Amino acid sequence: MAQEVRLPQMGQTMEEGTVVNCLVKVGDEVKKGDVIFEIETDKATLEMESPTNGFVKFIVAEINQTLPVGSTMMILGDRDEQVPMSYVEGLTGGKGLAAGAVVTPAAPIPTMSASLGATPEPGKPMGKIMASPRAKKMAEELGVDLAVVRGTGPAGKITEQDVQNAAAAKPAKPAPAAQPARPAAVTTPMAQATLGSTVKVNRLQRITAERMLKSKQEIPCFYLTVKVDMTELIGLRTRMNESGDVKVAYNDFIIKAVGTGLEKYPIMTGQLAGDVIRLADAIHVGLAISVPDGLVAPLVKDVNKKTVRQVARDSQALIERAKKDKLDLSDLEGGCVTVSNLGAFGIESFIPIVVPGQCSILGIGRIADTCVPDNGNILVRKLMNMTLSVDHKVANGTYAAQFLDFVKKMLEDPKAFTI
Questions:
Q1: How far is CA 289 from CA 18, 136, 208, in A?
Q2: Cα(142)–Cα(119) distance, rounded to whole angstroms?
Q3: Distance between CA 388 and CA 403 in Å, rounded?
Q4: Where does the chain hold its CATH 3.30.559.10 domain(s)?
Q5: DSSP characters over 319-372
Q6: Total-model pTM
Q7: Considering only the top CATH level, what class is 3-169?
């Protein structure tokens, strides 16, 4: 019996998803739990599994199509089952084909012509022209009139190949002189951008922009900056990396100090919910990581319960998964605070933007040799700037300052760490 596969809610805040890839084709057998789509949400690209067994009869969703949660994406059925097109139209409210969804039957259905009418002859379209979004776009680019194109797809639907054939038979309308340069400019990768080019914003960049705008509009922040003497901690890190089985980064110490500070100052984990401040159940600290498509901040979980080396192992695993685009929602949801470190780029200090859903974010600058007076002498110490951006709806200045001072003092006292 035919069954529809709908887009599930793959996260608490997910309202829609973009189809990045379809991993099956019409006629394939799928089993419950098999990965059938890759879906990009507002947080990560996730694998969508089949909720049941069956054979693929129709693929309704289209690559790069953004769909709301609950949308029909695929039709599964028994091996020899013939699924009428009217069934698909019924599931999509009669809008699936009109919207240009990719609907591909496993085999010709004898009743299709009777239910949908004869295939229109060239020049004699019957009702609304049915064509995939890509076919429509190609027709516009090639100057092909879809009204005179005979579709060879299901129910006479016009495909990209139909448009190409029509364009070959009849020269396309000449494009304006400046037109050919636009597609190349729009698709210029950010890494290859040059002056005068137009760089296309990918989905992750768009989501990041929307979330940062939301943060600036809805989170009234204040900012605190301190200098941390990292001299002793640098020595500890050197000794640990000489003998340990995992390389420990400065971020790992910072994350551990932040996690310990959140345990002591729990209001810093909170979010305003009506007339109460709701505190986090666990201390998960985000680590901002640059990836080819933009920026992500996966979470090191239960930081307050781990040693520095355990934090280092978790951080390295997150970085590897982020670079390979293998993060899932459990890596991204439920954070209390984020650590963003630009010290490797020579940045002295910066003011980071709070991630919506969190109370604060800590910006880390570079470690620099600095002359410090000491009882009439001048010592060279290794100092580092930290800037904390704080949601004033949740924490006041005094409380946040105490939290930041705790983190500073812990970093300056290597004995405070469980390694």
A1: 22, 39, 13
A2: 23
A3: 10
A4: 220-416
A5: HHHHHTT---GGGTSS-SEEEEE-GGGT-----PPPPTTSSEEEEEEEEEEEEE
A6: 0.66
A7: mainly beta
Q: How far is CA 72 from CA 3, 16, 30, in A?
A: 10, 12, 17
Helix axes 133-142 and 160-169, enclosed angle (nearest 10):
20
220-416 carries CATH number 3.30.1120.10: no
What is the model's pLDDT at position 41? 79
Q: Give tens-digit pLDDT for 26-75.
A: 889 999 989 899 888 766 778 889 999 999 988 988 888 888 888 889 99
Element (H, E) at 21: strand 16-22
Q: Is the pLDDT of residue 113 over 50?
A: no
**Which three-class secondary structure state does DSSP give residue 150?**
coil
Measured in whole angstroms, the distance separating CA 248 from the mean position of its chain's CA atoms is 27
Nearest one of 81, 8, 94 to 51, comparing CA atoms:
8
pLDDT at 246 over 50: yes
Q: Which of 171, 119, 104, 102 is nearest to 142 (CA)?
A: 171
Q: Please indicate whether residue 92 or residue 159 has the higher confidence score (pLDDT).
A: 159
Residue 83 pLDDT > 70: yes
Give the integer Cα–Cα distance in Å for 120 and 147.
9
Span 365-404, pLDDT tens digits: 999 999 988 888 899 999 999 999 999 999 999 999 999 9
Checking if the pLDDT of 13 tops 70, the result is no
Locate all alpha helices (DSSP H) within 15-159, ordered by sequence.
Answer: 85-91, 112-116, 133-142
C-alpha span between 120 and 91 (Å, rounded): 25
State what percent of residues in the chain have pLDDT above 90: 47
Report the phi/psi class of residue 89: left, alpha or beta, with left for phi > 0 and alpha for psi in -120 to 50.
Answer: alpha
CA distances from 15 to 10, 41, 48, 368 (A): 9, 8, 15, 45
Closest to 149 (Cα-Cα) out of 137, 162, 136, 140 = 162
Residues of the chain with CATH 2.40.50.100: 3-169
Q: Measuring CA to CA, how many Å separate 134 from each of 64, 100, 138, 185, 300?
A: 11, 9, 6, 20, 41
Per-residue tokens: 311: 């934090």
Which amino acid is residue 373, in one-letter code?
P
| Bridge-based pairing state of the strands 377-391 and 360-374 | antiparallel
Return phi, psi of residue 22, to 5°: -115, 125
